[in-house]
Amino acid sequence: MEELKLSSRVQGLLGKYYAARPEVFAERAVLVTGAYAQTEGQPITIRRAKAMWHILNGVTVLIRDGEHIVGCKTPAILGSPLYPEVASDWVEEEIDTIALRDEAPFYLSDETKETLRAEVFDYWRGRQVYNRIMEVLPSEIQQATDAGLFFHYYLNRTIGHITVDYERVLKKGFLGLKAEVEDELKKINYEDGGCLRKIHLLQGMSLCCDAAIRFAERYAEEAERLAAAESDPVRRAELEQSAEICRWVPAHPARTFHEALQSFWFVHLILNLETNSYAIGPGRFDQYMYPYYRADIDAGRLTREQAGELLACLWIKFNELTVVKEGGTAKASTTYNDFQNLNLAGQTIEGQDATNELSYLCLDVTGRLKLPQPQISTLISEKTPDRFLMKACEVIRLGFGMPAVFNDDEKVQALLHKGKTLEDARLGGINGCVELVVPGKDNMASSGYLSMPKCLELALNNGIDPLTGVQLGLQTGDPGAFTSFDQLMEAFHQQLAHAIELKTVYDGIARQAYAEFCPVPFTSLLISDCLEKGRDYHDGGAR
Description:
This protein has 23 helices and 9 strands. By secondary structure, it is mainly alpha-helical. The protein has a 3-stranded parallel sheet. β7 and β8 form a beta hairpin.
């Protein structure tokens, strides 16, 4: 297969990415603060949906020179917004040190600092999800967190590790999804004790559909504005095409590969603007994108080279998604980009090999660009062609850490063990680092880090933390009196079980806090069963 060449367009976009400076922007924080202030007293799900409308109708709309895929999180390529409704105390405390720290520093302009102090911090004192968690968190668990027994990112980032059903938008568009929501509203049983909650969620979903469509329309308007002022006829035609695409998707079903990629990106971007959750993953990208690629290739509307350039433009976009972290999180995870796991190959719902031409092209683009994102996971089954496995190995040999290789036959067995249907197990994939999920149907699998070495340290000190002298773990005996290694292992297992128990209590508190105070109507719209159940993703809506 012919090796993909990097076009001058892609090289130019890469150059801008490499020259970019990580920077914090106040724009989203100001918009969400204004929306919450205007909607006090209203149901929280409605407030969240109106906040999404406010954000998507207010954030800067910007199309960079040469872009084929449009839509940005902030005006800067590596810019990070803030999510004060989740946690803002840490931003206020670290505002003058974020740019100076060794781990993942972000620049903050004096203007941004002034805006945050004048328009954001005061409103959110005592109102953050962080506050709601800390109010009920047992001191024993807080002590364990402070000591490093386990670390939870729910305190400053929302519940993540999400793979939504992107294909629903590609096939139906937001107008189609809005129609489904309206149909569900007509079925409401007003004698049902949970009907009010369901009504609020459905109303919020409907408003989010409108907000997503308006967001794309704003990009269409910007493309038209730029096209009118563009002297280069080639670039003017590209901008006019972007305007046409953004007028059509994501409101309507995608008709071409370019439209499908643009529709996908709007959904992915909006998910990242709704919350600052970890690891929003594209899932089995080559499966839901392949029909559009194949149709365009067969109709002569697209060449492999053109498709590769479009993918390269999208890959660069993935790397723009950054989230500034508080100091403790930055020390544990020093990366700028968020983790966006994109799966290739694997099996079809019928259990046949799912590898296709787009699977190879995605590997080719990944190898040529050598960017941190998206994370590529190849799903290798007994039916996967040797040629694809060899292609993955060729990319691995380049030495930049991708792709990962997973045994897809074992993945199916593991998901069956979790209670999935055979069909869903075959459609499953990888999210985050190594979590097994069924796209569009699962809750988050990971909630933070647990330190097994710390458990061993406690076992070696009868549960006392040697750094503080505090009785942090169970009293499992003086190791000096142990007469066998088995006794040490038993003490370790007891300390580990205790740590897991504490972590599970924290998980329950955090999940309920997010369900009550930070529902996600846009995300829930793209997760199976949330619509029918009338329950938010954070509130048990996922299948």
